[in-house]
Amino acid sequence: MKVGIITFHRVNNYGAVLQAYALQKTIQRLGCECDIIDYNRKNLRDILLWQKSKIRSFLKGTPDRQGYSNTEFMNMVLTTVFFNKKTVADKFDSFRKRMNLSRAVNSDTIKDLNREYDLFISGSDQVWNCGRVILDKNYLLGFVEDGEKKASYGASFGIKEIPDKYLEDYKELLSGFKYLAVREEAGADLVRRLAGREAKVVLDPTLLFKKEDWGMLIGKRSAKKEAVVVYMLEYSENLLRFAGKLSKRVNCPVRLLNKPFHHRTKEEYRTDVGPVEWLSQLQNASYVVTNSYHGVVFSINFNRNFYVEIAEERIRGAMASRIEHILKTFGLEDRLIQKEETDPQKENSKFRFSTKDMDYGKVNEKLKELRGDSMDYLKRILVH
Questions:
Q1: Is 110 exposed, middle or buried (0-12, 13-18, 19+ CB in 10 A)?
Q2: Where are the domains of the chain?
Q3: Which residue from 34, 134, 83 is spatially nearest to 278, judged by alpha carbons?
Q4: Which residues 6+ apart lie within 8 Å of 277 measured at CB?
Q5: Confidence (pLDDT) at 309
Q6: Distances (CA, A) of 17 to 9, 230, 252, 384
Q7: Which of 9, 85, 286, 328 is most buried (most C-beta within 10 Å)?
Q8: Does pTM top 0.85 for this prediction?
């Protein structure tokens, strides 16, 4: 069987490229040929409109449809600048050479792939988030002619409600899938409400790899273990203050994996971290402090002590479900960063946290169980 995966493999984001890599390699290990569809939209109009919407909201001082605050929007811009620096971008491009890609296609030519694959898989990542892709129907396999060839794995909506103008599109497209699997319970609930179907909840593809599998990819890279490693998907003063207080309590230096351009810091930082180096930093950290979903996922897989912040903007924008889901799945809700003070700007804000090493016994048992369950789903759809 030959499988084509459509996902966000071209974005310079650690979680995005690593989940794409993990899903492809897992399918190949199961005996199938597998390509990641090298899809690039020919018309960037939708992307420009999305940014136009954000800029308009920024100027008016109001959140946009995903609930981003003005501060977060500006930090997203700065983060985008960081990840598109040549030194970092080159490392992402180098990592993508480890993947098998289809020939390059766009919104006009992607339909020509119908004759080349026996099964198409949408996912993982937020490929069904109409706020990120303005409902690009190709991510919901709208280009696939045969419904028997339509499957998803770990697809995520990233939102709790679908805009009214897209409801019928989602209902029609989701109804056309032969196999449906999503990454979060919130996604399964959306599928149920939109299409009246049950979607299986599966692990993020990166968790299909055991920590030993990732270790083989990392190799013998040296990374100082004695560090509080901070990875911020979005810049957060609150998270940095927490990391500083943790550092003092455990007598361990802070290391930032992506130093914000607008933040003056005395902490150790790296501005040239590629995907494999990022894995190495998390694998060898004494503590991980993050607001990233995949920062949490890899901390769990590597059995690292970690703390995670869910920003208020994420809660308002319904983007918190993926982190809440993974914490609840493994009974790790206590790893959420909690504040005693309600004013995040107070320098003397107190945090409630324990520095005791996490007990991963039950977590690893649960992970083994869920990994087997997710693998069973993949095996089933690959022999359809």
A1: buried
A2: 2-208, 211-367
A3: 83
A4: 91, 221, 270
A5: 93
A6: 5, 20, 30, 27
A7: 9
A8: yes
